[in-house]
Amino acid sequence: MIGGIQNLISNPTLYNLTQSTVTQVTTETCLKAIGRPSFILLDNQIDSKTKKFSATKELLYQLTCLGIYLSMIHQFKKASFSIGRKLFKDEAVFKAFEHTGDFMEYYKMDEAARAEKLKAINSLRKSGDQFVKENLNLNLGKGIIESSSILGTVLGLAILAPIISHPLIHPILKTMGLDKNNENQNKTQKA
Q1: Residue 169 and residue 139: Cα distance in Å, rounded?
Q2: Per residue in 4-50, pLDDT tens?
Q3: Which of 18, 72, 124, 165 has the fewest other C-beta atoms within 10 Å?
């Protein structure tokens, strides 16, 4: 049992996933989408209509956040190497790799596979310049990608999600008959 846990924890794939902003935020949002509605439904201090309304609204909000976040991150990650090329014109890492996907594939390779990939990249170069692993600033490349992910997270979750979710969620709740029940309940409480 301990050996299995040790193998899981030391797995390079798991390590790479935990080092990704995208994986961390996606995991957190999925846990919120499951946990928050569940805790609302388990609360015995709330009447059933309010529980259904609140839990459904929270689930819809978290799913909306997840969709917006994933679409924002996709766009920001695609643009990250273009931004890196403009900010760091002379850095070899942005010259060696065409786009983020190529870089991330290389970044996750072991040393032997990286050496082979670098040979392949150099064989395609028309100029006499050759890339060597010492000149590829992998931390800069990964830093640009993660910075763009953080920027996409802030823009997607803090700014766009609340703006987009409000007009989206209430019509869905009305279609499900939940918003109408909540409005009727509020009217009877005010009377």
Answers
A1: 41
A2: 777 766 677 666 666 677 888 888 999 999 999 999 999 999 999 99
A3: 124
pTM: 0.71
Are 130 and 95 a contacting pair, CB within 8 Å?
Answer: no
Q: Establish how many alpha carbons lie within 13 A of residue 123's alpha carbon, considering only the half-sphere containing its beta carbon.
A: 6
CA 141, CA 130: separation in Å to the nearest integer? 18
Query: DSSP for 49-70?
Result: HHHHHHHHHHHHHHHHHHHHHH
Q: Given a cut of 70, is residue 102 above it in pLDDT? A: yes
At position 149, the amino acid (one-letter code) is S
Name the token pair of 113.
């596979």
pLDDT, one tens digit per residue, over 146-176 is: 888 888 888 988 899 999 998 999 999 999 9
| Domain coordinates in residue numbering, the chain | 2-190
Which contacts of 66-70 are long-range, i.e. CB under 8 A and separated by 24 or more positions?
66/26, 66/29, 66/30, 66/33, 68/156, 68/157, 68/160, 68/161, 68/164, 68/165, 69/25, 69/26, 69/29, 69/152, 69/153, 69/156, 69/157, 69/161, 70/26
